[in-house]
Write the structure tokens for this entry.
Amino acid sequence: MSKRKGFTLWLTGLSGAGKTTLAGHIFNELRNQGLLVEILDGDEVRANLSKGLGFSKEDRDTNIRRIGYVSRLLSRNGVAVITAAISPYRDIRNEVRQSIEDDGSQFIEVYVKCPIDVLAQRDVKGLYKKALAGEIASFTGVSDPYQEPVEPEIVVETDQESIEQSVATIISELNRRRLITQVTESSESSHLEASALAYID
């Protein structure tokens, strides 16, 4: 059993903001630290644990509660959990935070921030263009609300920062909280590789 305390790093933000990209690079950083790490990706959870759910507020809330429940179980057993899910509603994010903190683990909310116009430029599938034209219903950030975090522990602005910079900001906060030790040399080299990659989500 791991002697380290687990925690949940909760990445929230609009589709295409860079949550999945960041989660993958943070995963590598934490593995280099010798931590037990798991990624809970919103799309993968929908396909496996939440199959059949739609995109009503009730169904979205159910999906996030399921991600939160698994995060709580893992983090209380010494696992560093990284979630990458839009999680658009503030009340459910706060509910998940409370359940994880009540269980004795830390919950670190990361707002992966990026403006709509940049997201539309990044979107190779053209979903934002269709949503803005009214062709897609219940699209978060356009025809469905996204409630920004009020006091997130971390904010990264992926339209202004490289992947290297955003990952470094997150790792620095984990260091400050003594959840990990200083970044290793191999971790730093992965930053340099990451900086050349484009954000995807």
